[in-house]
């Protein structure tokens, strides 16, 4: 029964700390926009989609310029030869020809239309990726801030728990507390310490995950 009485303040400490914490106060949306901007600048897949859009845009220009391939120009030079007595050429001098490929004329509009469709498709792919990328940056940022908040809560709680365990040890040394209850208090302290180690690891993992997508250390983004 005395052990239960001892544990109640520990749980009250944790519950009170949770009640005072709010993740929203830790979120910096201006800083989050900087993270998204850094991702757009650094993340390789962003550059890949930009390159695809540029390639598709160049495809439109190439398709339009290919209209000139429809037409061809040629000339033939026949020199005058007054000494020729048999079947003299009816035409002499330069002969010019201008030709148009009818099949190409019919195909070019569809080729330009297809190039424009490919350009729009590349743009839509990039827009979809940008939206997904922004959502992923936000998700990783919020996860990171959550892990930081949890670590702060547990770090704050362990200080009070350490004080409670110190008090329990003094009471045990005075004979006012049983060995069993004192050992239980040490177990609670050990569990909380392990939780802090776990929370620190989760913070590092979340930070690394966020830095992976933005391509920079968080400390470098002010």
Automatic annotation (TrEMBL):
Listed GO CC annotations: cell outer membrane; efflux pump complex
InterPro entries: OMP_efflux (IPR003423), TolC-like (IPR051906)
Keywords in alphabetical order: Cell outer membrane, Membrane, Signal, Transmembrane, Transmembrane beta strand, Transport
Signal peptide bounds: 1-19
Record GO terms (molecular function): efflux transmembrane transporter activity; porin activity
Subcellular location as annotated: Cell outer membrane
Highest taxon of the lineage: Bacteria
UniProt keyword annotation of Ligase present: no
Main location group: membrane
Hydrolase found in the keyword field: no
Family to which the UniProt record says this protein belongs: Belongs to the outer membrane factor (OMF) (TC 1.B.17) family.
Identification of the protein by name: TolC family protein
Species assigned in the record: Dyadobacter chenhuakuii
């Amino acid at each position: 029964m005395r052990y239960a009485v001892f544990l109640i303040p520990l749980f009250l400490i944790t519950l009170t700390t949770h009640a005072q914490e709010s993740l929203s106060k830790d979120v910096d949306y201006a800083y989050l926009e900087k993270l998204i901007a850094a991702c757009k600048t650094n993340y390789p897949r962003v550059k890949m989609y930009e390159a695809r859009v540029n390639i598709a845009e160049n495809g439109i220009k190439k398709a339009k310029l290919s209209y000139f391939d429809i037409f061809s120009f040629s000339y033939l030079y026949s020199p005058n030869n007054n000494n020729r007595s048999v079947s003299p050429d009816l035409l002499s001098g330069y002969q010019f020809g201008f030709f148009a490929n009818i099949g190409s004329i019919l195909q070019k509009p569809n080729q330009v239309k297809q190039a424009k469709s490919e350009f729009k498709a590349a743009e839509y792919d990039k827009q979809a990726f940008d939206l997904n990328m922004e959502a992923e940056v936000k998700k990783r940022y919020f996860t990171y801030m959550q892990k930081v908040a949890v670590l702060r809560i547990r770090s704050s709680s362990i200080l009070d728990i350490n004080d409670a365990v110190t008090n329990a040890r003094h009471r045990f040394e005075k004979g006012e507390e049983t060995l069993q209850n004192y050992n239980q208090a040490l177990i609670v302290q050990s569990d909380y310490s392990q939780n802090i180690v776990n929370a620190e690891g989760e913070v590092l993992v979340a930070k690394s995950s966020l830095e992976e997508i933005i391509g920079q250390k968080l400390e470098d983004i002010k």
